[in-house]
Amino acid sequence: MADVLSQGEIDSLLSALSTGEMDADELKKEEDEKKIQTYDFKRALRFSKDQIRSLSRIHENFSRLLTTSLSAQLRTFVQISVASVDQLPYDEFIRSIPKMTLLNVFDAYPLDGRLLMEVNPNVGYAVLDRLLGGKGTSINKVETLTEIETKLMTQVFQTMLETFQTAWESVVEMDPQMEDIEVNPQFLQMVSPNETVVVISLSTTVGETTGMINICLPHVVLEEILPHLSVHYWMQTKKKERDPHELEELQQTVKAAPLTLQAVLGTSEISIEEFLGLNEGDVLELDQNINDPLLLNAGGEAKYYAQPGQWKKNIAVQITEEIEEGNEYE
């Protein structure tokens, strides 16, 4: 589609033509000339713009979910956002990342092949420092991971894969399984060097440390689900209609679920010394007036007022009133 000119650009163009700064014949000649676009066969563009936009949308959701997950796990400030989405040869991607870094290689069943998540050492060691009780400072040294560091990073990567699965569930029911942790990308050969991959770069901040998380998705692995990445597919996908009998069965199942009821006769406070000295037959004074109704808890929450009594020689309580929300018994 041709670019649409603004009113200001149109006025400037007409002014240039009227003053002679521009020649209309030259403009027409340039327009008639063939416009040739250079195409590099080594950098084959195998993903359409529509598919790239869909991948960007999926990983924007992934970055939001991961921000929440890591913030809760590390109890510090975490901010993750999509910085770029590019398609390039696998060999070029490997050459673009640090020589020593943290690489999470994982299978993405039912997809046939392996995916890669690369975590910059700055981010990785900030996470490790935080998990070990530090402030989240980073030391940019990756030689070999110790057994403890490997264990901790495995747990972090597992959390990231669970979030990755959630972000992709609108496209495919994926079950990512971690395969290995590597530190040297030169020894990692997932696909052929010329294979086109999509690299989603996530700008990541953990505390005061910043770095990148790169997700590498080979075309050969995503090929079978590429049609699902089109806007047309998403627009045509309808929500599954609920079976008319399904709601009724669900209600019956919920009604049959066991529920614990608890009548609170009252409470009392004593010291630990008094508690240790309790013997059989001792009497505790409760804070419950004999004329006040009892609280009846359902599932741990106060739901009813009740009065104590007896039913067929069994101790029982009789519900006298329902506790309305916001009107808790004091």
What are the salient characteristics of this protein?
alpha+beta, chemotaxis, 35% helix, 330 residues, Chemotaxis protein chec, flagellum, 4-stranded antiparallel beta sheet, cell projection, 6-stranded antiparallel beta sheet, single chain
Give a structural overview:
This protein is of the alpha+beta class and 330 residues long. The protein has 3 domains: 15-40, no CATH class; 43-236, 3-Layer(aba) Sandwich (Chemotaxis protein chec); 258-266 and 290-330, no CATH class. Helices cover 35% and strands 25% of the residues. It contains 10 helices and 10 strands. The protein has helices at 7-19, 24-32, 49-74, 90-96, 121-131, 147-168, 219-222, 231-236, 244-255, 272-276; strands at residues 78-89, 102-109, 114-119, 175-182, 196-206, 209-218, 261-264, 294-298, 301-311, 314-322. Strands 1-5-6-3-2-4 form a 6-stranded antiparallel beta sheet. It has a 4-stranded antiparallel beta sheet with strand order 7-8-9-10, with no helix packed on it. Strand 8 (294-298) and strand 9 form a beta hairpin. Helix 3 (49-74) packs across helix 6 and helix 5 (121-131) packs across helix 6. The protein is elongated, with a radius of gyration of 32 Å. The termini are far apart. 20% of the residues are buried. Keywords: Bacterial flagellum, Cell membrane, Cell projection, Chemotaxis, Cilium, Flagellar rotation, Flagellum, Membrane. This is Flagellar motor switch protein FliM. It holds the Pfam family FliMN_C.
